[in-house]
Specification:
single chain; alpha+beta; Arc Repressor Mutant, subunit A; 3-stranded antiparallel beta sheet; 12% strand; elongated
Length: 172
């Protein structure tokens, strides 16, 4: 078979075209993956923004009922000398903890997923940031031994330890 330069060039162009198409598909897939990662990061930023406005450790579990003010107002925690605020707390976050604790105490033998708790406590329809905040509240209650966790099935479910939660409400 004679050596035909036109056929070799055509094959080379076809291969180059296929490589470019493959790279383009890879770039589109990478762009979609990055868009998903950005969406996850946006949700995490929203949760962190909500957490920044929540009280530190001990108050995170109980949140004083006296501190609960109308939505949108803020409560400040001051240093011992009262000179400057340590952290600003959202009354909404304090109310959320109280609503979660009250729901668990009203139904002490029932197991709830964090999504169930969010649907009940965050009316009318909870946003992803609200669901994450409720999940974080339940995680902190679990950390301090105020709720039980059943992770043998999905979704993970939580149940109140009534005595511990009542004690928490009484110490506020």
């Amino acid at each position: 078979m004679p050596n035909m330069p036109g056929i070799d060039a055509s094959v080379a162009l076809t291969n180059a075209y296929q490589v470019l198409v493959r790279r383009r598909q890879d770039a589109h897939a990478e762009r979609e993956r990055i868009a998903r990662e950005i969406a996850k990061l946006d949700a995490a930023v929203e949760v962190l923004r909500d957490l920044v406005t929540t009280p530190i450790e001990d108050a995170a579990l109980g949140g004083s009922a006296e501190l609960a003010e109308p939505e949108g107002t803020e409560v400040a925690t001051f240093e011992a000398n009262g000179s400057r605020p340590l952290r600003t707390h959202s009354a909404r976050a304090i109310d959320r903890r109280v609503r979660v604790i009250e729901l668990l105490l009203e139904n002490p033998s029932q197991w709830f997923s964090s999504s169930d708790v969010a649907k009940i406590t965050e009316r009318p329809i909870p946003t992803s940031a609200q669901r994450n905040a409720v999940s974080e509240t339940l995680r902190r209650l679990l950390q301090h031994g105020k709720v039980e966790r059943d992770d043998s099935i999905k979704p993970v479910r939580y149940r109140a330890i009534p005595a511990a939660l009542r004690e928490l409400l009484l110490t506020e």
